[in-house]
Write a structure and sequence with these properties.
The protein has three domains: 4-165; 233-325; 333-484, Histidine kinase-like ATPase, C-terminal domain (Heat Shock Protein 90, 2-Layer Sandwich), CATH 3.30.565. Helices cover 67% and strands 10% of the residues. It has 13 helices and nine strands. It has helices at 4-38, 45-72, 80-101, 111-123, 126-148, 167-281, 292-325, 337-347, 349-352, 372-390, 423-428, 446-456, 481-484; strands at 286-287, 290-291, 333-335, 356-360, 368-370, 397-404, 409-416, 460-466, 470-478. The strands form three sheets. A five-stranded mixed sheet has the order 4-6-7-9-8, with helices on one face. It has a two-stranded antiparallel ribbon with strand order 1-2. Helix 1 packs antiparallel against helix 2 and helix 8 (337-347) packs across helix 10. Bound molecules: adenosine-5'-diphosphate (ADP) and magnesium ion.
């Protein structure tokens, strides 16, 4: 079936040219009248012009209504078929009047009946076209029969032809008109029906094609997502191994550096009074090419910087170890996400306290299976990211929502109204060591570790971020089987 609205639209377009054609007809009528007048034909010109004026008025009405609908847009309530029926009937009536005032059977305008049945076939359904054709023929027949019997005056173009007085002639013309009308209706409506059937078939196959192509697109998208996930997991696995090795290698030296730093600090504390006395006795005394007062002033800072450097290295190593550990299989405890959220909020209280935190937690949330600690680690990483994204903003809001989705999975949304992320950042969000916070000591491991943990829990994570508006991360996990059943 061709879309009804589509057909209405098409019909509506045809009505447009039908109205334009009528302007042409009025001009033609005026021209023919003028010619007859010039050649001195005796006709009721006043009446013919009145019919022309009537056609002009109703066509103006059709035109204005058509334009109004065009501006408003076409809706189902607009019935183009009804309008087409009305217009064609009005035309038959005025055409019959023109035929009557312009010579009856001899008026060449009777050809316009044929034109109208063709137009009708383009716009109406077959039974309607037949009814219209019959209506036209009856009108014509009525006029010529009434004229023949003298019940209506006959306005002859020139001499009243003797033929006109012959009933046979009138019958022959009427029969010819009837046969031509029927043949045209039969032929044109068959062609139009055929075209409509073809159109319906084409629309049907193009709808099928569209559906197929959208299915294909969806499958393609899914494939790409899966591929990305695979690449991500691959990266995590190899990086996990690498970082475990590295963390182990760095851990030993860093520990003795930290120990030695402590000893060095204490040694300095004991040595400095002795060196002070020596410097007093020997003005111009230098240490490491620095004058002693300068050295004395900076040595404490130097040592402090070195200490904090080693603490930072130790922190990084700890993060790396955590990252490496994310490959371990998760503990199969029953985890209440709402509880994990509470614990995580307490843990990062200091970091997020300057922002407004809104919690909308579903009290009937089913539990999930996994490790409460590691789920907590994921929530903490996201809370810290949100707080860092909000920075010093006064109107920062962090929202946490838990719910059970229609697919039976438990989901947790963590949203902030921070600066959001660019497409590029979103693409690389879960890449190990990807960070935009190099200057403030970001490691870029928070979300890649979180990603690994979420995967271990058969969960998924989705990012929705708009620059200047904020970021929402939605985690979802399957319900623990004994819980969900
Ligand atoms: N809520 C957020 N708003 C804006 N950007 C974020 C948000 N969460 C993460 N990001 C971006 O993702 C990057 C990676 O995050 P993460 O893996 O936690 O590493 P890090 O926080 O150490 O940079 C961040 O550097 C930041 O650019
Ligand atoms: Mg982070």
């Amino acid at each position: 079936m061709v879309d009804r609205l589509f057909l209405e639209k098409e019909l509506f377009g045809r009505l447009g040219w039908f109205i334009r054609m009528r302007w042409g007809f009025i001009a033609g009528l005026l021209f023919a009248t003028l010619l007859c007048r010039l050649f001195g034909v005796d006709l009721p010109y006043g009446r013919i012009l009145a019919v022309g004026g009537l056609i002009f008025i109703y066509n103006l009405g059709f035109f204005l209504r058509h334009r109004a609908i065009e501006r408003k847009g076409i809706h189902y309530t607009w019935r183009a078929q009804r309008a087409a029926n009305l217009q064609i009937c009005a035309d038959y009536l005025s055409l019959t009047a023109v035929v009557h005032y312009g010579g009856g059977v001899d008026n060449p305008f009777i050809l316009l009946y044929l034109l109208h049945v063709m137009i009708g076939s383009l716009m109406l359904r077959r039974p309607q076209v037949w009814a219209q054709g019959l209506f036209a023929f009856l009108l014509f027949l009525a006029v010529v029969v009434l004229e023949y019997h003298g019940l209506l005056p006959h306005y002859a173009v020139g001499e009243v032809s003797p033929r006109y007085q012959s009933a046979w002639y009138i019958l022959a013309v009427s029969a010819a008109l009837l046969v031509t009308l029927c043949s045209i209706i039969y032929m044109s409506s068959a062609i139009i029906q055929d075209l409509r059937d073809r159109e319906a078939r084409i629309t049907h196959s193009s709808a099928l094609l569209e559906k197929k192509s959208s299915d294909l697109e969806a499958a393609n998208r899914e494939l790409r997502e899966k591929q990305q996930q695979l690449v991500q997991s691959e990266k995590l696995v190899s990086l996990g191994r690498l970082s475990a090795g590295m963390a182990h290698e760095i851990n030993n030296p860093i520990q003795f550096i930290q120990g030695n730093m402590r000893i060095l600090g204490e040694a300095m504390d004991s040595m400095l009074p002795v060196v002070d006395r020596h410097a007093e006795a020997h003005p111009g005394f230098k240490v490491a090419r620095l004058s002693y007062p300068v050295f004395r002033q900076h040595i404490a800072t130097l040592l402090k910087d070195m200490s904090s450097g080693t603490v930072r290295i130790a922190d990084i190593v700890r993060d790396l170890k955590k990252f490496a550990r994310s490959e371990e299989p998760s503990v199969a405890d029953l985890v209440d996400l709402n509880e994990s959220i509470g614990a995580s909020l307490r843990l990062v209280h200091n970091k997020i306290k300057r922002h407004k935190v809104i919690c909308e937690l579903d009290p009937d949330l089913p539990k999930i299976r996994g490790s409460a600690n590691r789920i907590g680690q994921v929530i903490v990483a996201n809370l810290i990211n949100a707080a860092e994204a909000l920075g010093d903003r006064q109107d920062g809001v962090i929202e946490l929502r838990t719910s059970t989705g229609p697919d039976g999975r438990v989901s947790l949304c963590i949203a902030d109204n921070g600066p959001g992320m660019t497409e590029e950042v979103q693409q690389r969000l879960f890449d190990p060591f990807f960070t935009t916070k190099q200057n403030s000591g970001g490691m870029g491991l928070g979300l890649s570790v979180a990603y690994g943990i979420i995967k271990d829990h058969q969960g998924s994570i989705e990012v929705d971020s708009k620059l200047g508006e904020g970021t929402t991360l939605t985690l979802s996990f399957p319900v623990a089987r004994s819980e969900g059943a």
